[in-house]
Amino acid sequence: MTRMDRKTPGHDSKDATRPQRRTGRGGKLRLEPEVMQSHPVAGAWLESVRSSIGDANFEWGLKTARSGRVRVLEIGPGLVSANVSEEGGGGKRVIITVPMLTEMAWNRLEERMANEAVWTARLSEGECPDNLTQLFIDCGVTFAPSPEESLSCRMNGPADSGQRRAGAVAWLAAERFTIEPLSMLEVRGRSVAHIVERIRRHRALDLSGGANAHPDPPIPFDADLKESLNDSVDHFWRSRFEFNQSLTQSPAQHIPHALLRRLGPSTMEGKFPLSGLLATIYDHVSEQSRAMLDEGTG
Fold first, then answer.
1. Residue 268, SS3 per DSSP
2. Where does 109-228 show beta strands of DSSP type E?
3. pLDDT tens per residue, the chain (298 residues)?
4. How far apart are alpha carbons 291 and 178 in whole angstroms?
5. pTM of the predicted model, to two decimals?
6. Cβ–Cβ under 8 Å, residues 138 and 128
7. Cα gap 146→240, rounded to integer Å
């Protein structure tokens, strides 16, 4: 690792939206090393740890994890930790800290996910889309920490012992990432539920540069009131403008077919896109409705 700390400080989070820590009992590895190393998420995680602690500590960690001397695995925002014991010694808590993605990076990812409804559907079901890793790369970051990122290890004890035990923690965590790849999202700083909620918010926003699906009425507002609050009590809620003045202003732009845009592309296959067919029907119904209203008022 890049550094070793003698004390294990608590991991406090000021952001209440960050995911909570998840703990497990730990135990012996059930998966073969080759299976984890070939997995796109677990393999990248293992390579990142190996490059930090060295091959010898990495191999020692594998033997220790196979022997069942890793207990109480914990995965949370920016950390992976567990209790690890050496032969003839007691268990010690080891914490591997992992850089979390910036808010700007998460915004880029969530905006990209908001373009397709499939992301919300798959993540809500706890499924890891096959192209999730590529999406992170396209946004300039990596899903699992890369070898270029700075990992660190904390443990009460000698630094060399901490690095060996960190290798054991890494292997047991790799098994979790193989079985539950979305656990890596928590390590990177976002829970699945938070990501899904953010995607839905992005999908509800204007995707065409500031228009709203249902804009507020353009009622003018006098921002240059010079009277104090005490002097304006009697007429505070009375507008200085006539109501009809608001009707002379140009209405705000709105998104055509806003609900269809929120739903995203249809997953049904066919010669003609379902969303395009529905948009055509909606336009035809709107035109006929306006014609009927004009005839009734003519």
1. coil
2. 152-154
3. 433 333 333 344 344 444 555 555 556 889 999 999 999 999 999 999 999 999 999 999 999 999 999 998 999 999 999 999 987 677 899 999 999 999 999 999 998 998 888 898 899 999 999 899 999 999 999 999 998 998 998 888 777 788 999 999 999 999 999 999 999 999 999 999 999 999 888 877 644 444 444 444 444 444 444 566 667 667 666 655 555 554 454 544 555 666 666 666 666 665 556 666 777 788 788 888 888 887 776 5
4. 60
5. 0.63
6. no
7. 61
